[in-house]
């Protein structure tokens, strides 16, 4: 993986890239390979192709595209025109690929799927960031990701200028309403969590009402509070109650149309599943230039 392809403000493990590309190529090539190219393209034919944007947006996924072409032709020559995180317009060249024609054609769809899908996430994130740029709030993704694609989609969020929430159940304690119900209440669940948490593990708890927030604040055991499905006036009251003692996160059905009003309440973070589960694919294409 070339570092020139990566978003300057984000990193993704090359192991994640290799594993994702391997799975995708195995799915597409199946047991017999690209039978169309094998039947119609003479062995040893060389080809040059251009991967380009066909619409305006923010790019993510180029390291995966490059890895797909290199997996089928290790000697392929790739010219990088932009890197992940770049804002582009229709017609912008992204990569030029020169190599074995069968390999270029065999990796084409996998490359386009990665770049189109991840650029869609990056573009959606960038628009959220733009809508709340006049506030101090940061936009964060959630765990509402496509199975097997979480690390890639969270990388794309960072390419779009957003921030990551936890990656999984294992890297932070986030107490939700069902945990509270099972554990016997807010104070009880926070006390249990504090006893179990390591000194580097943060504790966040979800509340639905200002009364629940009061109980959280009284315990002094949380590091952050998730203010779930509260309207802007209630969020303003919640932020005032917290008074900087905890990090505040607004969540619950946040859209582009509601993001600005929510951010203006003074919360620290907005978390939205729409960044990943509802992002539209960015139109990108690959054309052969023999």
What does this structure look like?
- The protein is 43% helix and 18% strand.
- α1 (14-29) packs across α4, α6 crosses α7 and α7 (186-196) packs across α8 (210-219).
- The strands form 3 sheets. It has a 6-stranded parallel β-sheet. Strands 3-5-1-12 form a 4-stranded antiparallel β-sheet, covered by helices on one side. Strands 2-4 form a two-stranded antiparallel ribbon.
- The protein folds into 2 domains: 3-121 and 280-288, Alpha-Beta Complex (Aldehyde Oxidoreductase, domain 3); 131-277, Alpha-Beta Barrel (TIM Barrel).
- The protein has 11 helices and 12 strands.
- With 290 residues, the chain is an alpha/beta fold.
- The chain has helices spanning 14-29, 35-40, 62-72, 101-131, 150-159, 177-183, 186-196, 210-219, 232-242, 256-263, 274-277, and strands spanning 46-53, 57-58, 77-80, 87-88, 93-100, 138-140, 173-175, 203-207, 224-228, 247-251, 269-271, 284-288.
